[in-house]
């Protein structure tokens, strides 16, 4: 593989770290007080799910998220933080990449009508898949330093 400036493994590490920074920015800009105290994030998602064209999304949201809005708010917000930290540090990277891919696919499916968000979710999912299948934890990661996931 020919590359410019860095080697292929280093460019994959750059992609992984950049994806992690994207997750950290998603976490940083969230109004956590609104999410945790007023339930704004889950209330917004409930409104989106209630109008969804797919019954599976509506019923899935009503079964899994709606009965526990406070817990789910913490799950979403701190999942984004954990994904960002894991990808930037390269710790448990395959787990973070699979988790991020699944979370982006959930976001993508929930917001199927919101085209403004779809580009972000599609690109983050693509970066997760590339990072996973190209084993982006081989360089510049705690996983590599600790000899994990060889």
Describe this structure in words.
There is one protein chain. By secondary structure, the protein is mainly alpha-helical. It has helices spanning 8-28, 32-38, 40-50, 55-65, 69-89, 93-110, 115-133, 142-146. It starts with 7 loop residues before the first helix and ends with a helix.
In short:
By secondary structure, the chain is mostly helical. The chain has 8 helices and no strands.
Q: Secondary structure elements and their pairing?
A:
Blueprint: H1 8-28, H2 32-38, H3 40-50, H4 55-65, H5 69-89, H6 93-110, H7 115-133, H8 142-146
Helix pairs in contact: 1-5, 1-7, 2-5, 3-4, 5-6, 6-7
* H/E series: HHHHHHHH
Main beta sheet: strand number and arrangement? none
Number of strands: 0
Mean pLDDT: 94
Distance between the termini: 20 Å
Q: Find the structural class using helix and strand composition.
A: mainly alpha
Annotation keywords:
150 residues, mainly alpha, single chain, 8 helices, elongated
């Amino acid at each position: 593989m020919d590359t410019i400036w860095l080697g292929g493994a280093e460019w994959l590490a750059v992609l992984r770290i950049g994806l992690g920074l994207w997750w950290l920015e998603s976490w940083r800009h969230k109004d956590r007080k609104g999410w945790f105290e007023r339930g704004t994030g889950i209330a917004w998602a409930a409104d989106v799910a209630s109008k969804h064209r797919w019954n599976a999304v509506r019923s899935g949201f009503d079964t899994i998220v709606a009965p526990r809005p406070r817990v789910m708010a913490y799950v979403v917000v701190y999942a984004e933080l954990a994904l960002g930290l894991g990808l930037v540090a390269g710790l448990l990277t395959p787990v973070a990449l699979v988790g991020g891919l699944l979370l982006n696919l959930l976001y993508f499916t929930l917001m199927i009508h919101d085209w403004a968000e779809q580009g972000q979710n599609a690109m983050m999912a693509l970066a997760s898949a590339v990072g996973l299948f190209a084993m982006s934890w081989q360089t510049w990661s705690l996983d590599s330093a600790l000899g994990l996931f060889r």
